[in-house]
Amino acid sequence: MGDADRLPMANVNRIVTSILPKDAAVAKEAKVAISACATVFVHYITELAVQQCDKRKKVTLQYEDILEAIREAEFNDFEEPLKEALAAFRAQNKEGKKPPAKKQKTGDANAAGGADTSMNLDTSVNNADTSMNDVSVNEGAREEAGAGAEAA
């Protein structure tokens, strides 16, 4: 698992600090460990979902594949929050509202015309990111996901 696969530390920091009491401190190594664990979890659930997709003889991951992967991995406590997040996401899309735009800092890569490769975890988690609803999976991605799951 390379650095490109890891969650951005700024997002990990934001999530960790939002959960803990204000006077709590978290070592940098602990945040790196949390990021690594979350990355492994995402790879694992994705691989299980791809297997569900294969069983259906489909190439597009659907929400149901993710939900079945959560059940297969015995993370049943995540099922209701996942359903609630998807319902909120669908309601937001039905109303035509877009998630809040990411603020740009002057002088960053986006302002200079560069591509933003970071991921906004808050939006993804709170809005049940579209990746849970409809993600195309090509054969190369399946092989890569399978190799990542075997290595873990």
Count of separate structural domains: 1
The CATH architecture designation is: Orthogonal Bundle
Q: Strand sequence of the main sheet, in spatial order?
A: 1-2
- Helical coverage, percent range: 55-70%
The CATH class is Mainly Alpha
Strand content range: under 5%
Counted beta strands: 2
Query: Cα distance, first to last residue?
Result: 9 Å
Number of helices: 6
Instruction: Determine the CATH superfamily.
Output: Histone, subunit A
Main β sheet profile: 2 strands, antiparallel
What is CATH's topology name? Histone, subunit A
Derived structural class = mainly alpha
Give the low-confidence spans. Answer: 108-145, 147-152
Globally, the shape reads globular
Global Rg? 17 Å
Give the overall pLDDT as a whole number: 74
How are helices and strands ordered from N to C?
HHEHHHEH
Structure description:
There is one protein chain. This protein has one domain: Orthogonal Bundle (Histone, subunit A), CATH 1.10.20. Strands 1-2 form a two-stranded antiparallel ribbon. By secondary structure, it is mainly α. It has helices at residues 9-19, 28-55, 63-72, 79-94, 121-126, 139-151; strands at residues 60-62, 134-136.
Topology:
Blueprint: H1 9-19, H2 28-55, E1 60-62, H3 63-72, H4 79-94, H5 121-126, E2 134-136, H6 139-151
Antiparallel strand pairs: 1-2
